């Protein structure tokens, strides 16, 4: 019995009691309990139950430890202050070390802050609308006979909005947006040419939240000739004091196509926030333009995709089910196509409003959207940079542990427990993080204008309104303080006391210590980033230098306005200058997209052959191939005199891919064969070499060029670059002679070519910056660490030299250590980086192969950087006279 | 006169501590109360009362000897302080006042 009571200390109930009760009460109470077991002769079997009952009854507030003990608190603040004082002494004593830590941590944090702002901005698109979660954009997927997706624009047809709203009860409001072709706006004497006026349905204000500064959404569209301004356009027209001018009683004149309209101003909305995927400055009722277009266009449901369409659904509406059931829509409004249900050719896709900016990249997006991949890439890079910065700190503070041995020893002797030591080092890391934060904020703040410029945003570092940023900063402080401090804290507090007092301890030289792991991680991140950068740069270089198959230099793309009616004389006028070498008209130009695909039939001799592939086409004139310098491999170029409609014969030039797709590997054999394409029927006149009409993201597809005199919307002008300004001036003055309403807007084809890869360029530049930061931080760590390594190996180096080692031997020794770490990092990261970058390259149909070079280059760069950052100290150590180093004891 | 708050159970404990004089510690107090007053006392209730009165200054403590049946744990002896004595006096006086104020007839159940 006596024995058993001795052991109640270990019972769960008593352990709980010990935990909870005030420590000074525990001894006699637990003694009382064990005595009572004896006195009351509690049986062994009933003992546990009895103990639990007693312990639970003992849990009275009177006896329990307070949750928060003020005395303890006072003690611990004293201790914390003491830790802080010790830390600041450390910081001041080892200035180099502190500087390295500060620079490393603050750069990493600054990059993180910027990435946070970017990601936050990207994720906040369109969230400000009250009904954001219930708003969807209507897009239409078109399918070929084979069920292949042939096109999906950001637009729907004019007839979709009201029919969807009428047929589906879940859809409560719907609006279309249709841009007016830039009318001139006149107010008093002032004329504003080409203002962006957008027509919208009356529902627009019930769908989107556009706060009104003047007027109200309910009355805004009462009149057909209503015009709602934004604050920016109100200021532009009426000046900064527009609020005092009683705008609701004002009218403005709009001129379009020679007609004049009087519009009543019915409201002023707040400017649309940057984080919205479209921006309008004027809204007018769509009813107005509906009359002008007529029934045919307005009821169209199977084409004429020009109408940006949005609807608002009831909260909780099942959009997947709605999409499912929308095939009935097509069957209701369209006739069967080639005997098949129209729903096999058309399908709706309803895009959630809040997903459009990050997930949608359709043809005809109103503005360039972001990409979720970019958000992921930057988030990962941000985390990696933080990791590197933390690793740096861990490395430095553990590699210099010898400096702290005595201090730790004394603290331990004076009764400091392990947890107190851990706290001390955590205080140190938190303190340095807190010191880094303001530096990081200043860095981020000064870099922000450049970043804004680069990503075309207007982000601000606003700690007052942006409470998420504040939370993120606090989180950053805690996370970095903990991550950076935890390992050193446990590492240092674990050191053996007696040995630390002697100041002699060196850790058992195990091959795989944690510090090596850390450096390896750092190397791996840097290697991975350089690897990615090398691949991206090589691919961009490949794009830039690869021959697209057409001339892009010295070419100007000039979209034509409707006012230019006589293309023939326009061309003659343009060519009258010696600086204009050639002018070609076409419906689309290379660097654009191949979208229009018409029904085509090919005739092999007399037999009709069905086309089992998509054959998109463009309309061109006789100067197109010449102007773009597209090579013919068979047949002839178009002639000027080949009137297509006179003898109802069309002329086609196809590309080699089309010739091969039609079964003619020798393009010469297809010349003269018959082809019908939409309304055009005629002969294949020539075959061109394949050229990249679209970007290198897409494969070269079969295509046909039709000589036509209609649908020629763009002029491509080959200019003499010797006197570019003369040439441009001539184009501008010629334009003004033909169209004095619309401003001339042209671009160099070369710029359009570059634009195709603007995402990649941007990605490359961003990764470039981050790689430099990562390398910088990493180097700082290396410099700090190698200093320590040499310190501890001074004697070893001395002994080796005495025994006959050369300087090269010694260098090799230290080099080998780092090389092996780089080797391990290389083996770890290369497969991952290879896999990821391969995925990226796959987004291009034409891409480089990751050869041995992209694998080797990062390693060489890292080796060189390592050599540079550790070289000086290492060589100095190796050259030192061994007498000096051996005397150090 | 200070404010001597003393609950009924506290008063019993305090009196018992006085009764046991030098021998008052957790188990002995508990046994004493259980024997004399024939009521069950849990360690929790007893300790709460003891510590509360210790905090109020009615009780002093000193460490006693450790024994094997206590698992090597020392006893903690409780002693009534002069202040505790005053509290007891006060409690008794208050009751006495009340007792003496009761008219005889109130308890003269036979004549009602």
- Which CATH first-tier class of chain B would you pick? Mainly Alpha
- Largest interface between protein chains, with number of residues from each side: A-B, 28 and 25 residues
Number of helices of chain B: 4
CATH topology heading of chain B: Arc Repressor Mutant, subunit A
Rounded mean pLDDT of chain A is 84
Distance between the termini of chain B: 40 Å
Oligomerization state: heterodimer
**Number of discrete domains of chain A:** 5
Number of helices of chain A: 30
Textual characterization of the structure:
The complex is a heterodimer of chains A (about 900) and B (about 110). Chain A has about 900 residues and is of the alpha+beta class. Chain A folds into 5 domains: about 55 residues; about 180 residues, no CATH class; about 230 residues, no CATH class; about 160 residues, no CATH class; about 200 residues, no CATH class. Helix content of chain A is about 50%, strand content about 15%. In chain A, strands 1, 2, 3, 4, 5, 6, 7, 8, 9, 10, 11, 12 and 13 form a 13-stranded mixed beta sheet that branches. In chain A, strands 16, 17, 18, 19, 20, 21, 22 and 23 form an 8-stranded mixed beta sheet that branches. In chain A, β4 and β5 form a beta hairpin. In chain A, α18 packs antiparallel against α19. The radius of gyration of chain A is 38 Å and the shape is globular. The two termini of chain A are about 60 Å apart. With about 110 residues, chain B is of the alpha+beta class. Chain B has one domain: Orthogonal Bundle (Arc Repressor Mutant, subunit A), CATH 1.10.10. Chain B has 4 helices and 2 strands. Chain B has a two-stranded antiparallel ribbon with strand order 1-2. In chain B, a hairpin with a 7-residue loop joins β1 and β2. Chain B is elongated and about 60 Å long. The N and C termini of chain B lie far apart (about 40 Å). The interface between A and B is medium-sized, with 28 and 25 residues.
């Amino acid at each position: 019995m006596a024995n058993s009571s001795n052991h109640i200390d270990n019972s769960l109930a008593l352990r709980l009691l010990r935990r909870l009760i005030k420590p000074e009460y525990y001894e006699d109470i637990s003694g009382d309990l064990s005595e009572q077991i004896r006195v009351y002769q509690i049986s062994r079997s009933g003992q546990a139950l009895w103990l639990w009952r007693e312990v639970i009854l003992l849990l009275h507030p009177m006896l329990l430890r307070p949750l928060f003990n003020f005395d303890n608190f006072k003690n611990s603040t004293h201790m914390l202050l003491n830790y802080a004082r010790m830390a600041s002494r450390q910081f001041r004593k080892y200035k180099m070390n502190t500087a390295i830590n500060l620079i490393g941590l603050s750069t990493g944090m600054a990059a993180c802050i910027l990435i946070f702002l970017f990601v936050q901005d990207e994720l906040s698109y369109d969230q400000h609308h009250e009904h954001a979660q219930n708003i969807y954009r209507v897009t239409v997927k078109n399918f070929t006979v084979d069920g292949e997706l042939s096109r999906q624009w950001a637009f729907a047809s004019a007839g979709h909005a009201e029919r969807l709203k009428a047929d589906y009860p879940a859809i409560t409001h719907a609006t279309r947006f249709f841009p007016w072709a830039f009318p001139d706006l006149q107010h008093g004497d002032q004329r504003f040419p080409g203002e962006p006026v957008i027509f919208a349905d009356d529902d627009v204000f019930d769908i989107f939240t556009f706060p009104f500064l003047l007027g109200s959404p309910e009355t805004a569209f009462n009149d057909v000739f209503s015009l709602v301004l934004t604050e920016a356009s109100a200021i532009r027209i009426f000046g900064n004091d527009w609020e005092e001018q009683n705008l609701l009683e004002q009218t403005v004149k709009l001129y379009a196509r020679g007609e004049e309209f009087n519009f009543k101003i019915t409201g002023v909305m707040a400017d649309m926030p940057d984080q919205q995927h479209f921006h309008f400055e004027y809204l007018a009722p769509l009813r107005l333009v509906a009359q002008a277009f007529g029934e045919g266009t307005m009821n169209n449901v199977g084409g004429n995709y020009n109408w940006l369409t949005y609807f608002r659904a009831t909260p909780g509406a099942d959009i997947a089910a709605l999409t499912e059931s929308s095939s009935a829509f097509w069957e209701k409004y369209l006739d069967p196509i080639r005997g098949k249900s129209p729903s096999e050719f058309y399908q709706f896709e309803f895009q959630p409003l809040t997903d459009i900016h990050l997930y949608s990249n359709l043809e005809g997006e109103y503005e360039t959207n972001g990409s979720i991949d970019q958000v992921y890439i930057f988030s990962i890079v941000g985390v990696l940079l933080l990791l590197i910065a933390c690793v740096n700190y861990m490395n430095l503070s553990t590699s210099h542990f010898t400096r702290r041995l005595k201090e730790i020893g004394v603290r331990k002797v004076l009764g400091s427990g392990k947890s107190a030591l851990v706290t001390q080092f955590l205080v140190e890391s938190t303190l340095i993080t807190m010191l880094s934060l303001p530096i990081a904020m200043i860095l981020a703040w000064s870099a922000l204008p450049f970043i804004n410029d680069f990503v075309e945003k207007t982000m601000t570092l606003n700690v007052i309104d942006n409470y998420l940023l504040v939370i993120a900063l606090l989180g950053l402080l805690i996370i970095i303080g903990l991550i950076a401090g935890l390992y050193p804290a446990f590492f240092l507090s674990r050191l053996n006391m007696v040995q630390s007092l002697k100041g002699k301890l060196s850790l058992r030289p195990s091959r795989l210590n944690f510090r090596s792991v850390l450096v390896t991680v750092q190397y791996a991140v840097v290697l991975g980033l350089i690897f990615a950068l090398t691949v991206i740069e090589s691919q961009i270089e490949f794009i830039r230098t690869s021959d697209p198959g057409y001339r892009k230099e010295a070419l100007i793309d000039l979209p034509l306005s409707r006012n230019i009616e006589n293309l023939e004389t326009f061309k003659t006028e343009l060519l009258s200058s010696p600086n204009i070498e050639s002018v070609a008209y076409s419906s689309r130009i290379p660097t654009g997209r191949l979208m229009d695909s018409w029904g085509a039939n090919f005739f092999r001799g007399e037999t009709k052959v069905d086309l089992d592939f998509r054959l998109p086409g463009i309309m061109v004139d006789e100067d197109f191939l010449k102007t773009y310098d597209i090579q013919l491999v068979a047949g002839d170029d178009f002639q000027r005199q080949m009137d297509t409609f006179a003898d109802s014969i069309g002329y086609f030039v196809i590309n080699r891919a089309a010739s091969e797709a039609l079964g003619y590997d020798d393009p010469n054999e297809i010349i003269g064969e018959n082809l019908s394409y939409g309304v055009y029927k005629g002969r294949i006149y020539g075959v061109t070499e394949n050229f990249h009409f679209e970007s290198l993201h897409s494969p070269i597809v079969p295509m046909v060029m039709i000589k036509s005199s209609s649908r020629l919307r763009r002029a491509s002008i080959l200019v003499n670059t010797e006197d570019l300004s003369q040439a441009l001036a001539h184009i501008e003055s010629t334009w003004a002679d033909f169209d004095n309403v619309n401003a001339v807007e042209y671009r160099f084809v070369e710029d359009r070519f570059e634009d195709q890869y603007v995402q990649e360029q941007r990605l490359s530049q961003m990764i470039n910056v981050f790689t430099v930061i990562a390398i910088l931080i990493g180097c700082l760590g290396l410099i700090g660490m190698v200093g320590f390594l040499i310190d501890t190996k001074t004697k070893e180096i001395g002994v080796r030299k005495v025994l006959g080692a050369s300087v090269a031997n010694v260098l090799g020794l230290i080099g080998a250590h780092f090389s092996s770490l780089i080797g391990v990092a290389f083996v770890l990261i290369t497969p991952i980086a290879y896999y990821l970058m391969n995925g990226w390259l796959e987004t291009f149909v034409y891409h480089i192969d990751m050869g041995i070079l992209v694998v080797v280059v990062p390693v060489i760069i890292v080796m060189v950087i390592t050599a540079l950052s550790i070289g000086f100290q290492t060589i100095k150590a190796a050259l030192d006279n061994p007498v000096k180093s051996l005397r150090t004891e | 006169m200070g404010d001597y708050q003393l609950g009924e159970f506290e008063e019993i404990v305090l009196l018992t501590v006085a009764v046991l004089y030098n021998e008052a510690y957790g188990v002995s107090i508990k046994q004493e109360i259980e024997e004399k007053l024939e009521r069950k006392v849990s360690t929790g209730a007893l300790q709460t009362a003891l510590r509360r009165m210790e905090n109020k200054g009615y009780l002093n403590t000193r460490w006693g000897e450790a024994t094997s049946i206590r698992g090597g744990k020392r006893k903690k002896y409780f002693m009534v302080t002069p202040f505790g004595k005053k509290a007891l006096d006060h409690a008794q006086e208050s009751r006495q006042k009340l007792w003496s104020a009761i008219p005889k007839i109130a308890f003269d159940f036979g004549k009602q």
